[in-house]
Amino acid sequence: MTNARRIGVYPGTFDPVTLGHMDIIRRGAKLVDKLVIGVTTNASKSPLFSVDERLAMVQRECAPLGASIEVVPFDSLLMHFAQAQGASIILRGLRAVADFEYEYQMAGMNQYLDASIETVFLMADVSLQPIASRLVKEIAGLGGDISRFVSPAVREQVLARLPSRAT
Ligand code: ADP
Known about the structure:
It is built from six helices and five strands.
């Protein structure tokens, strides 16, 4: 097994992908041979962007980071997706106490489903920790400046989708 490639899955909605996500992706990519970014269809969250738009957005943002990153859609159970990808690691980002309870419970349940896959938590740079996709959309929708939270290209996409109140 010493030559086995270590594959990690980083799942999320990425609606839209933020500088916080990108920081976790950069850190995570260093820990594995291949990082699969799983973009959930997550219709229950009524995303602002379709899964195809989110896939393209994440792909574009990750393009400069190199070939060891793949962006793949999924709508199945996370552990089934991770197994299908041959992953031994699930990466999650931890922002604050608020994230902890949900993440703790999910990691625990996922251990029951497949104990051979480890959940690994990473922290983004402190300056990026408060960033959340939900707040980016809320701020943009109310005409606030989101340029410190997302890339210029993502900002344009968010503003184009929420044109009425954008400044
Ligand atoms: P989900 O819909 O599963 O919450 P998200 O797209 O919101 O997916 O986030 C995917 C992962 O990235 C989650 O583990 C989340 O905690 C993490 N994450 C999001 N924003 C940040 C951030 N600013 N710093 C650290 N982790 C983050």
